[in-house]
Amino acid sequence: PSAPSSPASCHSAHSPAAATGAGGWSPLVSNKYQWLQIDLGERTEITAVATQGGYGSSDWVTSYLLMFSDSGQNWKQYRQEESIWAFSGNTNADSVVYYKLQHSIKARFLRFVPLDWNPNGRIGMRIEVYGCTYRSEVVGFDGKSCLIYTLNKKLSNALKDVISLKFKTMQSDGILLHREGQNGDHITMELTKGKLSLLINLGDTKTHPSNAQINITLGSLLDDQHWHSVLIEHFNNQVNFTVDKHTHHFHAKGEFSYLDLDYELSFGGIPMPGKSGTLSRRNFHGCFENIYYNGVNIIDLARRHKSQIYIGNMSFSCLEPQVVPVTFLSSSSFLALRGTSGQDEIFVSFQFRTWNKEGLLLSSKLHQSSGGFLLYLSDGRVKINLHKTGRVLSAGLNNGQWHSVSLSVKRNRITVRVDNDVTSSAHAFIPLQIYSDVFYFGGCPSSGNISECNTSFGGFQGCMRHISIGNKAVDMISIQQNGFGNFSDLQIDLCGITDRCLPNYCEHGGECSQSWNSFHCNCANTGYQGATCHYPIYEQSCEAYKHRGNTSGFYNIDSDGSGPLGPFLVYCNMTDATWTIIQHNRTNLTRAKSANRENPHTVFFKYSASLDQLQATINLADHCEQELAYYCKKSRLLDKLDGIPLSWWIGRTNETHTYWGGSLPAVQKCTCGLEGSCIDSQHYCNCDADRDEWTNDTGFLSYKDHLPVTEIVITDTDRPNSEAAYKLGPLLCRGDRTFWNSASFNTETSYLHFPTFHGEFSADVSFFFKTTASSGVFLENLGIQDFIRIELQSPSEVAFSFDVGNGPSEVIVQSPNSLNDNQWHYVKAERNVKEASLQIDQLPQRSHSAPPDGHIRLQLNSQLFVGGTASRQKGFLGCIRSLRLNGMALDLEERAKITPGVEPGCPGHCSSYGNLCHNGGKCREKYSGFSCDCTFSAYAGPFCKKEISAYFWTGTSVTYNFQEYYTLAKNSSSHASSFYADMTLAREAITFAFRTTRTPSLLLHVSSFYKEYLSVILTRNGSLQIRYKLDSHQDPDVFSISSKSMADGQLQHVKINREEEMLFVEVILLVVGEKVENSDVDEETMKANSQGFVGCLSSVQFNHIAPLKAALHHSSSAPVIVKGRFTESNCGTLTAADSTSSETTHSFADHSGPIDEGKPLANAIRSDSAIIGGVIAVVIFILLCITAIAIRIYKKKGIYSKNEAKGSENEDSAESALKSELSMQNTANENQKEYFF
């Protein structure tokens, strides 16, 4: 064959290790049980392979497996990358396809197994293998011996140790390496259940109880009789432990300085004192190769019988056990073996290993009349079915370990035993003579109806070995050469089990479990979601929660998104600015006495989050501050003795700081020193005046890089009468720099570029966009073949496409509404080794599963383009905001400032967030974000949702005067001028809420210059009456709502809308109070008025006037007259009396519980629920009945003047007076009623 131009070499260019003949290999029959095996004569290091088709033919192989073995038995498949099994082969007969192996193979035998070949020809191969000879020293242990190496004390170096070796074994347990010292200190490397553990034990736990033991476990399925490499490097306190390319780095915090080890290493077991060779724990049974300790070849020393080696019974060769495993590849695999007919006893035994919980192990027909015998796995337990009855044996058998099963039938008695355990055995009695023709292992043939094989159970996927029938071992090699028996979809002479949880792709502590084909991550209690627990459940900041419409309360935040830091609990105070409040464990004012230089008063502050989490939160915030108050009496702060200040504090980076509250880092002063207002002008702090009276230096520390305060040290309180006290407030952070960080792309060719995106195994991208264009690329990053791209493909369609080596893949989300409506839309894309997903806004997430054994590594190398592509095609026009990749925010604004065609920032947030402004609040644009203007709303707060309520006492009233129309006509810009357009009001919209027990009561009265009026009263029996008088010559129109008494102390909401002759009234449990001084009203109104109103009025709105708010918040400027006692109250909010919800309080002292602390947080994620200061109010309104009546109301004219009295509450006794007067029941499930008049 024509060789590739440069053969791969280990050291220098070697000739090919093996090659096939001129015509090539072409078997007579082309099926999947053909292979070509090469014997290289000795163990060889193979670095590359090359293939061609058969010479001058149409025979070539399009894909194949490569297997290797030391003995010609017990083969292992070569795997590329983490999960690719097959090599792609040739596309014609003559061209050479060459593969350099990612990691070389050390083996004597190679096997090429064709998987697929030219459909118009047969299997045909010419092969070349490249490599060089492999030298190694081997030693074999029989499980009863060990090898002891005594170190040369002169050459021993305690600072650096390197131990490397290879091992292979079929036993799942055994000691590989042990080094003991005084007091029971020891280091042990041990194989346990096929995994390798490194155990470092400090024997004397009295001296070092904190870290008495380090135990690190790596690797899996290491008992497969193949070579595995181990490397332990210990340098100073850094330890690297590597098993087969998987490395664990850890830092031993000084344990090694305590480890007192003897100058003696033992391999293969633990020698007892006296070195008699008797061993305490399970010894190693298998082979070692190339043991090196600090460069010393230990096996070579042993072979030459050097004095420092103690040898048990061992050989310098590696014996291969004659075990032939079988792999059942799919659920349709089976192995059928002939039984022994007509004998009075049967004995069948085998071993199996699998990850699957279900599968048929063995099935047979034991005698003529029976329905058959089944042995199967169900939920990881072995079960027996005999005559339709099930019996459970040992559990948890799908753990990847070898388990043995034996079945014996003797004189009508049947016994099954698992793992040679007498307790897990079952017995049953069957009549008649035994008849067993065929045993089916692992499944059933799909063709034909075979009565003795039950196909209702799924097939077994896993490995079996040591199959024996009638105490005679089954020769699988002769079965493979079609000697006897029948099989399908088997791999004979290898066990193809792999551990899909190694490496573990479940992030953030998710638990990995697996089946034969795939793995699954359990993300419960991690705070993350998705197929690999990669994406955070919680928002990154309080700002993000606020813009989902949430109100103040406790929330979990995850500052670095999908990064390594977990979520933690904070209090979000949603005012006009959004404050994040993080508490610590010492919030009280603390006194400090009798402290001096030798014995300072030191206090440490522990926060409800780790310092890394705090740092991430502080970095995100616009501004952070922490109040530090220092009270002193003869206790100085800055005065220096020997140039060292008397007191100081320590910040996040462990640096000492001597500036105090309100000052700046560069200036060693207190606030008064900056302002020049200290009580003694010679000093820069009030405390430094050193007076014998209490004074203080208080202020906010606001230099972000130094926060939070972690420690305070006070040294000047040991003189007579000297005392200090300090109080550190919580860490307060405002805003989120990344949430509004945006860029506007003004031309299709403009883009921003950033460094290459690294998301090899998991990548997530999230951002907001806003556009009027119908298509465009949001971001793109290319590799040599791999790429990742997110684009708007059409006005209603976003596509996430990528390639990790399995060909391009695409996830598309269709939106029912168009996305180019110039409003903000949210995009979240994630790709991990299991699946790719895409979500737009609140639409359902779409995801595609990755192929089970494909490429998994995303390799990019170009720059990351945002808002365009490398080819400058299909660029994006519009805005992109809050772009985060794997939890890290990209600073679009900084990059946009220096990029032509791209502007930093993006206007127009109200079109998207305006709906967060409620109750008539108006959305106002800001550079970063928006605010709600509640001027014309009866409500207040950041979203105009906070009720403004007042408590009214007897004789209290609030009057709002609409000014004379001619003064308003001059000042026509005033909002009230609309009242005077045609001197009449054709419509009113009135809303208010009330709570009272007093009847009759006048709630609201609006009267005009023309003696027309509207009054809302509660009559003596508690029914609500609305009285309209729109014509001075007629009696008023009266509308009454009398389904129940409204004076029951519950909160009643009233809405009154009049459109000329049509009046709409809606009552939803609510109250308002007024007093009229006007004789031109009807008798009922006067009766109600004489009593006045006592109770609560809330959220009063008349058209766009909010009289109650004006009286409470703008009484000096608004045309309001207040009589009587009148105080603001929160009686208009639903309190505990209105709903059964209880109050939950959070202690910040120690959050050692699970992540989901405080269950309400789960709801905080959804924008429809609100948590207010830890109290959750659930209000359910049931719409009971709707009656509709239309009544004519006479046309009215004139100007209304409105007297509106408001209810309000007093700090001291008003609330209690109201509460005692009202025996309030639960209003949460009161009825909502609507009336149409």
UniProtKB/TrEMBL annotation:
Family, similarity comment: Belongs to the neurexin family.
Residues covered by region (Disordered): 1204-1237
Sections of the chain in a coiled coil: none
Domain EGF-like: 497-534, 907-945
Matching Pfam families: F5_F8_type_C, Laminin_G_2
Topological relation to the membrane, as annotated: Single-pass type I membrane protein
Disulfide bond annotation, renumbered to this chain: 879-906
GO molecular function: calcium ion binding
Localization of this protein: Membrane
Keywords for this protein: Disulfide bond, EGF-like domain, Membrane, Repeat, Signal, Transmembrane, Transmembrane helix
Residue intervals of the Fibrinogen C-terminal domain: 533-584
Phylogenetic classification of the source organism: Eukaryota, Metazoa, Chordata, Craniata, Vertebrata
Protein name (Swiss-Prot/TrEMBL): Contactin associated protein family member 4
Zinc in keyword set: no
Laminin G domain: residues covered: 138-318, 324-495, 741-906, 957-1131
Residue ranges of domain F5/8 type C in the record: 1-132
Gene3D superfamilies named in the record: 2.60.120.1000, 2.60.120.200, Galactose-binding domain-like, Laminin
Ranges that cross the membrane: 1170-1194
GO CC terms of this entry: basement membrane; membrane
